[in-house]
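dumping these here so i dont lose them again. two proteins, back to back, each one seq then C-alpha cells. dont judge the mess
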Amino acid sequence: MIDTVLFDLDGTLLSMDQNEFVKSYFGLLGQYAASQGWDMQETMKAVAAGTKAMVKNDGSMTNEQRFWETFTALSGRERKSAEGTFLQFYLNDFEKLSGLAGGKGEAAQLVRRIRRKGMKTVLATNPLFPRIATEARIRWAGMATEDFDRITTYENSRFCKPSLDYYREVLTAVGAHPQNCLMIGNDTEEDMCTADLGMQVYLVTDHLIDGKGLGAEAFRHGSLAQLENQLDELLES
C-alpha cells in the first residue's frame, strides 16, 4: 500500500513551461546583477557553473555549499555579501516570474486530498534553488509549506535529479520505503527514474518533458485532471 507520495513542482503541481521559466529566470537574475554593479556576463557564467556543479554533486557537501564553492571561485565575490544580494533578488524581482505560472486550484486540492488520507507528502523538486525561491513557487501553485512533510531545497540536499541517491536521501529523511511510494512528475528521466527503485510512478503530461525520447507510453500517464480521477486506484495499488 502507498503511504508516501512524492511530487515534482515545476510543470507538475505548478503549471508552467520549464524552458520559458528558466530562460526568463536567468535573464531576470542577470539584469538584477547588472543593476547592482556586477558584470552580468561574469556573474551568469558563475551561476551556470554553480548550477552544473550541484547537478553533479557527489554527496560530500550540500548543494548549497557546492554552489557557493563554485560561484565564489569563479566570480571572485565574497559569499556573505553575494548571498545578501541574491536574497534581495528573491525577495523582490523573483516574484515577477509568477506570471509564467498557472493552475493553482487543482494541484492544492490533489495534495490536500492525499494528506487527508493520512499519507506523507513530499515536494521532490530538483534542489537547485534556495528555500526562499522554492517557497515562492509553492505559493504560486496555491499551496503552503505545511502541505508537505519535506521540501527539497539546495540547503537540505546533497544530490540532484536524476540521481537515484537524491531520492534515497529523500526516503531516508521521511522514513519511507520505495515500494510504498508513488512519484508524480512530468519528466520521463528525472521523475520516472524512481521506478528503478521500486516506486509506483505517474507521468503528468500537461507540460511533458521527454529529453531522451523515452515516451509517455512507457509509464502510467495523463493530465493532472486525469490523475485526480485515478488517484484512489493508484494509492491502493
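---- next one ----
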Amino acid sequence: MATQFALPLIPAGSGEPASIVVGSGNRAVAEALAAPETWPFRTAILHGPPRSGKSLFARWFANRHAGGVIDGVESLEETEVFHRWNRAQEDGFPLLLVVDGDNWDITLPDLRSRMGAALQLEIGPPDDALSAELMLSHAAQRGLALGEGAPHYLVPRMERSYAAMEKIVAEIDRLSLERQVPATLSVWRDALEAVQGPEQGRLL
C-alpha cells in the first residue's frame, strides 16, 4: 500500500508535488530519513534512478530534521564536500548527500573512507501500487483527470520506471488538450505509443 508524506510550504500552482508518494520502492528510504540518529557518523548517501524523488526526499528531510543536505554531491569539488562533512560532524547535525548520477567516484582518500562508512540508501523501482499512486499524483499536479481505470490499463503496459511514468502522464495531458477530449482509452493508448513505441502501446 502506498502512503504520502506531506511536503512543507509548496504553494498551489507551483508545478511541484505537495507530497511524496511512498511505497515498496522507497519505503526503506523514507523510514531511514525519519531516523537520522541511527545513521553511522550522522551521514547518509541517497541514490536512485532519474525522477524518483531524491530531491523531494532531501527537502522533506531538511525541513523535518534541520539537517544538512548536499543535492548533486558528485558535481561538487571533493575538498568542499569533505569540509562540509567535517562541519556537520563538529556541529552535531545529520548530513544527507544526494547522488544525481549513476555513481559517485570519489578520488580523495579521506573523503572516500568517510563516505564508505556512511549509510547507503537506494530508491528501488516502483511496484504496481506505487506506480498507480504516482501516476495519479502526477495527473493531479497537472490538473488532469486521467479517467476511470487509467492506472489499471496503463501500469501493466508501461515501462516500469519513474521517468517513463512521468512522461506518459505528460503525453496524456498533451494529447487530451490538443484534441480537446477527455483522457480515455484512445488517449491512453496513443500516449503509450508515443512514449514507448507502437508495439508496446498496442498491447491489449
